[in-house]
Amino acid sequence: MPDLSTNCGGIKSPNPFWLASAPPANSGNQVQRAFDAGWGGAVWKTLGQPIQNVSSRFGATKIRGVAGVGFNNIELITDRALDVNFREIYETKKKFPNHAVIVSLMVETKAEWQDFIKRAVDTGADGLELNFGCPHGMCERGMGSAVGQEPRVNEQITSWAVEYSTIPVLVKLTPNVSDILPHGHAAKRGGAHGVSLINTIKSIISVDIDRLAIEPRVGGLSTNGGYCGAAVKPIALHMVAALARDKSFGLPISGIGGVSNWRDAVEFLLLGSSSVQVCTEVMLRGYRVVEDMRDGLEEYMRKHDFAKLDDMIGKAIPSFSEWGNLDLNYETVAKIDANKCIGCQLCIVACDDGAHQCIHPNADASIRVPVVDESECVGCNLCQIVCPVSDCISLEQVNNGFASATWNEHVHEGKALRPKKGAH
Amino acid sequence: MTDRIGEARSEAVFEDFKGQYTRDQATVEANRCLFCSDAPCVKVCPTHIEIPQFIRKIATDNVKGSARTIFEANILGMSCARVCPVEVLCVGACVYNAMGVPPVQIGKLQRYSTDVAYDAKWRFFEAGPDSGKRVALVGAGPASLACAHELRRHGHAVTIFEKRSAIGGLNATGVAPYKMKADRAAEEAAWVLGIGGVEVKTGVAVGTDVSFEQLEQQHDAVFFGAGLGSDTKLGVPGEDLPGVSGAVEWIEQMKLSRVPTDGVRHCLVVGGGNTAVDVVREACGLGIPRVTMLYRGTQAKMSGYAHEWKAALPEGGRADWQAVVTRFEGDGRVERVHCARLDAKKQPIAGSDFVVEADLVLVAIGQSKLGALLSGLEGIALESGCVVTDEHGCTGRKGWFAGGDCRNGGKEVVNAAAEGKAAALAIHAYLSGGSHA
Lengths: 424, 437
What we know:
The structure holds 2 protein chains of 2 kinds. Chain A has helices at 28-37, 82-95, 110-122, 145-148, 151-164, 181-189, 233-244, 262-270, 280-285, 290-303, 346-354, 382-386, 407-413, and strands spanning 6-8, 11-13, 17-19, 41-43, 58-63, 66-73, 100-105, 127-131, 169-172, 194-197, 201-203, 206-208, 213-215, 225-228, 253-256, 273-278, 331-336, 359-360, 371-372, 393-398. By secondary structure, chain A is of the alpha/beta class. Chain A folds into 2 domains: 6-319, Alpha-Beta Barrel (TIM Barrel), CATH 3.20.20; 323-413, Alpha-Beta Plaits (2-Layer Sandwich), CATH 3.30.70.20. Chain A starts with 5 loop residues before the first strand and ends in an 11-residue tail after the last helix. By secondary structure, chain B is α/β, with parallel strands linked by helices. Chain B has 3 domains: 18-119, Fumarate Reductase Iron-sulfur Protein, Chain B, domain 2, CATH 1.10.1060; 134-227 and 370-431, FAD/NAD(P)-binding domain, CATH 3.50.50.60; 231-366, FAD/NAD(P)-binding domain, CATH 3.50.50. Chain B is 34% helix and 17% strand. In chain B, a hairpin with a 6-residue loop joins strand 10 and strand 11 (336-341). The longest helix of chain B has 19 residues, at 413-431.
């Protein structure tokens, strides 16, 4: 049976699925129920100086009837009493000694960091996560993403935390930067044991078009929030991979951003995460989603013969390259399986309006299966994406007789490129 | 016209066979639509409603836009949503069928948008500027209503001549009440004619009260949409006994007033078409304990829709296949029906006579064709009693057009709506000096 246990920056847990620092990890009762449901770890809802929250706090995108593909919040850090939080962390850790309990912190001054870290360590927690990420509310007070966007401040505070802490320190990074690398390196210079990313993306989730007001609405006003949920996964994967493939970085990564099921988790692991953190899917569906995450991952590992997580972490990283190194002579064309085609012709309209006008209705109008003009097909994938039938449209390689040639090789070495297609 | 639709009608006991969607149900179902390109559902719809577009608009809560899309193609979209045999039209063509996935419930979605539109009293179309032309429409059924509406959009003055005292045609008098009741059909007729400028002359039989020559003289064009005539008779002894009735006549009575069913123990329905199946379901619904359909052919050969017959079975409908009525008997009222078995070629099998006890017999073997009414008019051709036209509804006589059951021999409401509208466009082209007719 595959071993799902992990060690992310010195923080060990029976599986890589952690609750992210957010409403699902707000209290001892919740975190303990989550552990009972199968979660391997939890990053407690961020602790800091007392705050007060607004109502309402959340918003969600609704696409074709599905709410929450993207999600946003304007909630701040914990609004519960600090001593209650610390006591519940202590109790939770005591009750679940093998699970990872990580305390998320966000304060301002050096003295506050020292005080909070001491109290956090005293709970018996397994690690700390420095919240340098929230892009709403707290950043206006010089915390959260305001720290994460300034590498020098990030490094400074990280170094304080590492100095005061006797347990591993993760730095949670904000995606609200143009390049994630300087921010990961700042955390590394500060002595962090790992990083977690991404925090939420600065956003306006929606506008109430009848009230002419931004949502979520707090009386007559609103503010920008932090965007998360399945829709942000591609941004998170990009940032995780950027750090993971930087050989001079090398810190463990806890991947966050749109993990909704075991497949998403596998993607984060393959791009270098050694744990994943989940919030939105739990907010929408509850702790029970972890059951599918765990056995989906386990079955995947079995299928690919990965005995332990380390065997798979980062395994997709080598497949990343700069665009200039992609083989321009690699050619594919779309093939439609006539036996599977249901005749919706979504591929025709997609190709006609959104691609290269190379999928046509059958000349015999009684046949609904479209015809691909392979001489014009650029192999763009759009038809495959819009097709509602699994494995009906495939992209198959064409042997065009041209040897591999990248743009860089073409420019610098004069390698020959195949004739362009679809450039009529 | 509503004075003809009584309060205590037999049809009132029926509930909708296909319920009405709530907004949430409609949204969930609308979001299942794949938004096919060159969609098969649109192709099979006689009125070519842009189905993927109207469904998409439900999904985005643009219900007014959705209803406009429907009515733009088919002004009778409300009744068609309820009465269309969608199983063999749009829903049957949904590509999900090929995927083994339940097809999108297009009819129920169309009913949702059109019902919301009626409830909100939305109107979408205005009469065009007065053209100075006058068109006479014979009959006030779906074909004429669709034709009248389209003619008014082009500014032509319209007069409808209807021999009955109620308008709406079979939509009011013939539709199975678990699909639509007569008052809803009347509401639709009023909504359609709400465009204004349509004079309705009820109780006027063209050919008797007004001659066709008079119509021709007083109008710039004539649309013949008279529908079908009375029930066809079996032509066997005893058919005039009380308790033996034409199905269409019985259905009309059930829908507009009451049919006596108390004490009826066995209703025998003769025929195998859609009217026969309808009347089986109706008789069952009215509480007649035993209802049997007697059909000359096999189940596989019946012209009634399979999905309708399937629905009749759990309601209590039964069939006696490959049998024919030879005569009726009874003392002052039908009591016994003498029948004979038929072979595969529908020929009587010698010595196969049998007797069925029945106290109500409904004969559903077709309706007479009304094309003959026009037989004296030079240029108008008839085929099997139906008026012959081109695909636009133009007859061989200048200025004369036809559509609906009198042209197609008896099809669906949606065919009548399509033909009425097509004829209106042909009439408009003709009146504008265009090519048609």
